[in-house]
Amino acid sequence: MRHHHVWRSQDDPNSVVVVHTFDSAEAAPAFFDSEDLKGATAEAGVDPSSVQIQFLDEAAGGAL
Q1: What pLDDT, on the 0 to 100 scale, is given for residue 58?
Q2: Which of 6, 31, 47, 50 is deepest in the core (most CB within 10 A)?
Q3: pLDDT reading at 20 higher than 90
Q4: Cα-Cα-Cα-Cα dihedral of 31, 32, 37, 38, to 10°?
């Protein structure tokens, strides 16, 4: 993983969005399939049925 961002809803602290940036398309599924990640999310109390994963390609970026 090259970079990550975490956002939490101001109205619902249980609503969280996490965005990861990877160096390759192959690295992303390997990260999400890892037993280490599954164990860490279980230990943190994350309900696996609440997790939604989407693989997206960056279309643009930058700073203003």
Answers
A1: 87
A2: 31
A3: yes
A4: -150
Assign 3-class secondary structure to the chain: CCEEEEEECCCCCCCEEEEEECCCCCHHHHHHCCHHHHHHHHHCCCCHHHCCCCCCCCCCCCCC
Q: How far is CA 34 from the centre of its chain?
A: 13
Q: Which two tokens stand for residue 13?
A: 């602290």
- What are the angstrom distances between the C-alpha of 56 and each of 39, 41, 52? 24, 22, 13
Question: Cα-flanking dihedrals φ and ψ of residue 23, to 5°?
Answer: -75, -20
What angle (nearest 5°) sits at the alpha carbon of residue 10, between those of residues 58 and 15?
Answer: 60
Task: pLDDT band for 64, please (50, 70, 90 cuts).
Answer: confident
